[in-house]
Amino acid sequence: EITGLSHAPSAMTFGGFRSRAGSAMTHVDMGMLVVEEAAKSVDRFSRLSTDLANERTLLSWIRTVMSTFHGVLLLLHLQGIGAMGVADVFMTKFAMITLMVVGTFSGIKRYAVIKEALLLPEPPQKFGRPSIYWFCYLNASCMATSVVGLYLDLWTK
To answer: What are 130-141's pLDDT values in tens digits?
Structure first.
């Protein structure tokens, strides 16, 4: 028995199948069932593909944080030359550590929000995913403080 159909041979049925309501299944009805199943399969694979892309994006956030952590470890050995150098090393360390913390939590938050939206039958257009603009500005501040220290030669080992 096919879901929603019962075997009842008749000259009026499609392949001997009738709907449970008793009306004969036509070529169009069977075609619609095939199309609906195909659409469900495509939707499942599309959601799976999106979920895997979401996981890859989370891994990218983790890689970014780990690279920043590596940079912070290197900065631990630097000393500022003069008051401006000390302030620049401090600001660079502070900005990079902040970038690590914000990157970790925002990557996890973005992953969770998208994962939740993927599980909905009809994903909403807006689902509360945090913007990355502020993360980009924070990254730019890390670069700016580093550039100042490097160009003005304010750092030493």
So the answer is: 788 888 898 898
* Degrees to nearest 5, angle at CA 27 with 23 and 30: 75
Among the listed residues 101, 103, 109, the one whose alpha carbon sits nearest the alpha carbon of residue 130:
109
For 76-124, where are the alpha helices, taking DSSP H only?
82-119
Encoding tokens for residue 47?
A: 């959601």
CB 14 within 8 A of CB 29: yes
The answer to whether 20 and 5 are in contact (CB under 8 A) is yes
DSSP state of 81: S
Q: Are 86 and 122 in contact (CB under 8 A)?
A: no
Quick check: 41 and 21 in contact, CB under 8 A?
Answer: no
65, 100 Cβ separation under 8 angstroms: yes
